[in-house]
Amino acid sequence: MDGNRSIDISANRKITDKDLRYLEEIPGIENLSLSNTNITDEGLKSVKILKNLVSLHIGQTKITDEGLKSINDLTNLKILSLDNTLITNEGLKILGNLTNLMELWLQNTNITDEGVSSLTGLQKLETLYLSGTKITDKSLNSLETFKNLVELRVGKTKITAGGIARLKKKLPRCRIFND
What we know:
Elements: E1 6-8, E2 31-33, H1 41-44, E3 55-57, H2 65-68, E4 79-81, H3 89-94, E5 103-105, H4 113-117, E6 127-129, H5 140-143, E7 151-153, H6 161-170, E8 175-177
Parallel strand pairs: 1-2, 2-3, 3-4, 4-5, 5-6, 6-7, 7-8
């Protein structure tokens, strides 16, 4: 752990849910990266006591919507990475309490237009990664509400060139990547 109270055990496939119980013994963790590990929803139950978390990376894990219930009270979170997980639109509804989120990674998940509409309460979002999701131009109305967005990634989605142009007009400060 460094002076920033960070723990990075990502890309360690030996890490399991049982290993996460030791996090309880390290108060004040602010940044936790568990991406590309074998953790599941059960392991996230050990994370929910880390009330000082500002950044949580749990992409490329076996996390589902059920696991998101364990992090819904981590209201200090500013960065949440859920890329390449098993979450769905239902899971995004659970994230409503995380109103301090500034960066959300959802790429390569089963998120659709319905899921994006669930995010509109997260008005502090500055960065949103939706590449590889199932969103279409139907998400434009929801995406246009994020007035603080400075980066939006929508590559490998069904958002059209016309949709991108509309977003650029409505969100002039936002860099939109469609690759």
